[in-house]
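Researcher: Re-running this chain for the archive, since the previous output was lost when a drive failed. Same request as before.
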Amino acid sequence: MANRRFEMHQYRNVLVRMRLGESNRKIAKAGLMGRAKASSFRELAVQNGWLDPDSPVPDEAAIAQALGSTGRATPRAGSSLERYRDEITRWIELGIQGTTIHEALCRKHGYTGHYSSVRRFVRGIRKANPQATVMLEFAPAEAAQVDFGKGPTIPHPLTGEPQSTWVFVMTLAWSRHQYAEVVPDQKVSTWLACHRRAFEWFGGVPARIIIDNAKCAIVRACYHDPEVQRSYAELAEGYGFLIAPCPVQDPKKKGRVESGVKYIKRSFLPLREFRSLADANRQIHEWIRSTAGNRLHGTTHERPLTRFAEVERHVLRPLPDVPPIIGVWTRVKLHGNCHVTFEKAYYSAPFRLVRQTLWLRATPSTVELYLDHELVASHPRLARPGERSTVADHLPPEAVAYWMQDPQWCLKKARSLGPATHELIERLFAHRVLDNLRAAQGVIRLAQRFGPERLEAACRRALRFDDPRYRTVKTILQKGLDQQPEPAEPSALAEAYTGKGRFCRDATQLRLWDPPPAPQRPGPGEPH
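Model: Regenerated C-alpha cells:
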C-alpha cells in the first residue's frame, strides 16, 4: 500500500471509523489504510480535534486542506525536461508528436534522456491542458460528409498488374447511412461523377456537403476564404447544395465520415478478394445494404438504413429533372501549333490567341475553349491519346491554303484554267523525287496576278521548252515572253536526237550574241 493513492472520501471514511473507536490495526486489517499511514493520519486528526465525538465530522475540503498544510506529502522528483517546458508546450500545440520532440531535444539541447521520459512529460502537459470538444448536431438532410480512403489492390483490366485504388465515401450526418465506391484515382472527373452517383443512391441531395481540402475540390485552402475548384462549384450550383470545406488540418469537423472510412477498412476490406472494380463495387454496395446499413450504430443506437428510410429520405432535396452536365474546368495554354493539350489529345483554337491562357471545359461528349467568358472553340471529345481535332478557320491563312489545296484540288483548278496548265501540273506531280505541292499551288496562284489567259500561254511555252517548273512559268510571265509569238517547231534532227529537242536548235532559231557596250572611263573632275 506504499504507493497507493487515497481519495478524500477514503480519508473521511477512515476518520469516521477512528471516531467509532477502531484501532489502526483493525483499519489496516479491513484494507482501508496501512498501519503507518493510519497512525500518521490519527495524529493529524488529534491535532485538529476531529476525534472528539461531540465535534462534527469535517468535510473532504477541510481534510484536504489539513493534509496539504502538514507538508507530509512526498514531493515528486523534478523532471530533467522542466527547463524545456515552454518549448515543449509550444511544440505540442503545433501537433508535433513525441518522437519528433525527443529527436529535437537531443539535436538542439544535447538531451541524453530516454524517450519514455519525454513521453511521460508530454502526457503530463496534455493532461494539465486538456482539449475539450463539442459534438456537432445535424438535422435530417442538413449535411453529408465526404472523404477518400485507401482502397484494395485490384488487378488492372488490361495488363493484370496490381492497381492501387481509393474508396469514395459519402455519409449522411444525421442517419449515418452512407454511399461508397471503389475508384482508380482522385481526379476531378472521378470526384464529380461519384457525387452524382451518391445523390442517385440516396434519391436526393443534402443541403451541405462537408469536405476536406483535397485538390479535386479546393484550389486554395484557407480558413476564411477557401477557393473552390470551378468544376465542383458548377456541380454544386446544378444540384443546389453548399460546399463546406473543413479548416486546414482539422478533420474532426467531418468525424462521421472519418469513422465511416475506418469502418469500411476494418469490416469490409479484410478477407475479401476483388477481381475488378466492378466486382468490388458490387460487393461494397451489397455490404452497405445488408451489414453496414442494418448494424446497430454505436452513437445513435439505431440502424442507419432504418433512420434513413423512415425520416431522412423524405426531407432530402429532390434531384433535378434534368441532371446537370458534369464539366471539368482547367486552365490550358494555346501552343504555337494552334492547339491545346488535354488528356494527351489535341484541340485547336484561333491562331490569334497563340501563347494565351484559356479556360477548357470538358464534358463526356464535348470540349469547349473559353477566353475569359467568351466561347472561342468547340470540339467533340476525343477518346484516344494523340488524336487531334482541328478546325480550318483556327489556322493561319497560309497554313490553311497548304492544308486545303491538296493535289486533287490543284488538278481540278488547273483543268479549269486550260489544258497546258493542267498538263504542267500533272508533270509537277509526276516528279519522282520532289513533292511539288507548293510549286503547283504557286503556279495556280499566278492566275490571280496575271490572269488565266497569260498563265495558260506561259505554261504552254514552258512545256514547249520542256521546263515545267514554277520558276520558269513565273519568269515567262514577268518578262512578257508569253505574249511573244510561239517559237518554231524543233527540226527533225533535233527531234530525232533529243526527243522533244529541249536544247537542240537549228541555225534559223539561233540569234547572234551582241556583246555589251564597254564601260566609259570618267573624265577629269568627274567622280569615280
